[in-house]
Specification:
Order of helices and strands: HEEEEHHEH
Radius of gyration: 18 Å
Protein name: Epithelial membrane protein 1
Largest sheet: 5 strands, antiparallel
Main location: membrane
Membrane topology: Multi-pass membrane protein
Helix content: 55-70%
Keywords: Glycoprotein, Membrane, Transmembrane, Transmembrane helix
Number of strands: 5
Family: Belongs to the PMP-22/EMP/MP20 family.
Length: 158
Amino acid sequence: MLALIGIVVLHITTIIMLLVATIDNAWWVSEKFSTDLWGRWEISNSVWHYTDLKNYPEEYLQTVQATSILACIFAILALFVFFGQLFTLPNNHRFTFTGILQAISCLCILIAVSIYTAEFHITDTEGKYGHSHVLAWISFVCTFILTLFYVLLRKKSK
């Protein structure tokens, strides 16, 4: 019972981190600007102004945006499926679908963060990766751990 509570807490924490990483504007930051997956905030005259991401390759940016959103959707869906499977399915089939959804979420996060790291800000001399980028990497590790837990719980129940 304690293991299930721990898994639920880790799952909810991971979902929150994923949502913050996807929504918050701190993927690439400096004192003059802050960039997220959707736009760039620049400060001038002590006022923040929103601008589009002009210098980003559009196909890579759309891939990062889409896979970040899909990671959130699959992680949330996996939590609901986990609760559904916990009470309805027999022991030998209990966490199969939840593990698959969690693995897809993990893969989506890995794709998004890897592309962002490899394709954006390679030649930028100003700025650094912000907390949203770090949260996305931490979310990847947490979803991977959750995927392993679901696989182990499935094998344990057999």
